[in-house]
Amino acid sequence: MEEKLLHRLRCPSCYHPLYYDGQILSCSACQQSYLFYKNIPLLSKQARIDRDWERFFNGQVKQKGDTIAANSYLNEHHFYLLQQAVLEMVGPVKNMNIIDIGCGTGHFSASLAKENLLVGLDLSLQMLMAAEAKGFYPIQASALELPLAENSFDLVLANSIIQCIHEIENFLAGLVRLCLPGGRIIISAFNCQNFFFKTFRQLKRNQSPRLFLYPLGKIVPTLAKFGARPSRITLLFYPFKLRKKILDFKFFEKAFLLVASSFVLEARKSNA
Length: 272
Known about the structure:
CATH superfamily: Vaccinia Virus protein VP39
Number of domains: 1
CATH topology: Rossmann fold
Radius of gyration: 18 Å
CATH class: Alpha Beta
Structural class: alpha/beta
Mean pLDDT: 88
Largest sheet: 8 strands, mixed
Low-confidence stretches: none
Shape: globular
Number of helices: 7
């Protein structure tokens, strides 16, 4: 068990520190114990909806292997456009503590592992094993539990996971909790206000667990409520390579949201 990961882990039941006895992780407060699968700590209490997503993504890997297709909701072209926009917003980073929540097989953010501590959190063990091979420190856990210490990460990534979340306020509060004061949170997702997304959601109705819709007009003030003020937004217009960069959410043309396919949102946690 790597010490650099262990001191950040917390009990998903009570959020107290965990200790490692050479075989299992145990909570010093509530006495709960947690096992490993190979090198991956199993820290998920797994609500029913989480189990549905775990089965879905395990099935994606079994069917498609360690590929971009296993991670993509739409197609590889959209994956690359979104990845490029996210990594451009991340910019050059070195010697940072980074967490990718819903990391999948790691294709999206693996380039950050070389010069940073990169933690990958996901429900799917199949995906986490692939991410570990790319340099991630993997944790199996729910994105609504986030069993990690507050103020642990310089950069918190949540790529294409928000549509899987049924409790948006708890999820966004958790992202802010993990982020260091002055650190950044970057969220990417489909733009649910786009007319195409409504059609896409209908097509996916029988192919995946339920998808949830959260407009930017909900995400932005919720992040601010928990102490992370949005600083930049990039709108993408798939299948075109067009982008629209926005520095002030209050003043951009709302009409863009009718045609933008996806968004990348950066928020910075307050130093207070």
